[in-house]
């Protein structure tokens, strides 16, 4: 045993092996450098410019833009509303997307392909077109209100648009595929023999699902949750149209500061604060839920 250890040490100390290993690392680094450069150009440079714009004005360095954000109650309301709607859409996407993904995985291959195609079909339609379609369906004289009135469910049209309700419905429709696809991919990778083995060991269907299937599907659930929540934070078109100007999310604050008031500093400070809040939320999530363990890291 000691002889084998000594031989391994000699092999590791061989100059030729060390040179080959260093050469391999250099090749890998050379392959990574273009990607890092592209990330720096497309991500880090704009973020640096945003951060700089948020702390300068005509007189030089200043914290005026951040002070305005913290002192003006309208900014706080928009931040709170944005996180509330994003969280609500994410929860609803989980409640609808998880059973749908599970059902797709239980079908045979032909029906799985059909169901998955139906999930992906909305991607073939413009987001703007889908939002206008919901405006037509949800308006006071739209198909939904008319159907409910004909069925005797309601007597007067319900205000589905120009409020949080319509905004949530439109965003949920757009975000649902982003939840279903990661979940479906994770569930498809779960060996069905594991559930059969749990049943053979005496576990009931419900117990086997929560102790075997659900833990193995958590990486897809976590990925879909993060994807939906982060995209919702930056939504603009759907809240602008379905909210009718009454649902003011953060993206709309940024747009108004730039286009109406020409305040690049104010818009940049709002964007930087949102970025910090998102990173803070991820840090808390990683602290309390151990993200690396969710994805199976060791």
For the largest sheet, list the strands in their spatial order: 1-2
Helical content band: over 70%
Model regions low in confidence, pLDDT < 50 over at least 5 residues: 1-8
Supply the helix-strand structural class: mainly alpha
What number is the mean pLDDT? 84
What characteristic shape results from the CA principal axes? Answer: flat
Overall strand count: 2
Helical segment count: 14
Radius of gyration over C-alpha positions, nearest whole angstrom: 26 Å
What's the main sheet like? Answer: 2 strands, antiparallel
Q: In percent, how much strand structure appears in the residues?
A: under 5%
SSE arrangement, N to C: HHEEHHHHHHHHHHHH
End-to-end distance: 28 Å
């Amino acid at each position: 045993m000691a002889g084998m250890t000594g031989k391994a040490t000699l092999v590791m100390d061989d100059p030729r092996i060390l040179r080959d290993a260093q050469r391999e690392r250099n090749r890998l680094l050379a392959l990574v450098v273009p990607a890092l450069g592209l990330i720096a150009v497309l991500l880090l440079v704009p973020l640096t410019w945003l951060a700089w714009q948020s702390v300068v004005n005509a007189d030089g360095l200043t914290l005026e833009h951040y002070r305005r954000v913290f002192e003006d109650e309208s900014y706080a309301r928009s931040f709170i509303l944005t996180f509330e709607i994003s969280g609500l859409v994410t929860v609803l996407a989980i409640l609808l997307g998880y059973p749908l993904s599970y059902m797709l995985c239980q079908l045979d291959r032909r029906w799985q392909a059909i169901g998955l195609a139906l999930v992906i079909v909305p991607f073939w339609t413009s987001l703007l077109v889908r939002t206008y379609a919901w405006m037509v369906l949800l308006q006071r004289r739209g198909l939904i209100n008319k159907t409910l009135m004909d069925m005797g469910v309601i007597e007067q049209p319900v205000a589905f648009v120009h409020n949080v309700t319509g905004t949530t419905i439109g965003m949920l429709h757009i975000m649902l595929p982003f939840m279903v696809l990661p979940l479906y991919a994770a569930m498809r990778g779960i060996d069905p023999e594991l559930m059969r083995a749990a049943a053979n060991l005496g576990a009931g269907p419900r117990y086997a699902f929560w102790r075997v299937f659900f833990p193995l599907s958590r990486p897809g659930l976590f990925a879909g949750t993060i994807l939906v929540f982060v995209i919702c934070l930056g939504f603009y078109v759907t809240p602008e149209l379905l909210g009718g100007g009454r649902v003011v999310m953060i993206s709309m604050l940024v747009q108004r500061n730039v286009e109406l008031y020409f305040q690049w500093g104010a818009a940049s400070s709002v964007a930087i604060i949102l970025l910090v809040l998102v990173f803070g939320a991820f840090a808390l999530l990683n602290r309390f839920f151990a993200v690396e363990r969710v994805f199976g890291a060791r």
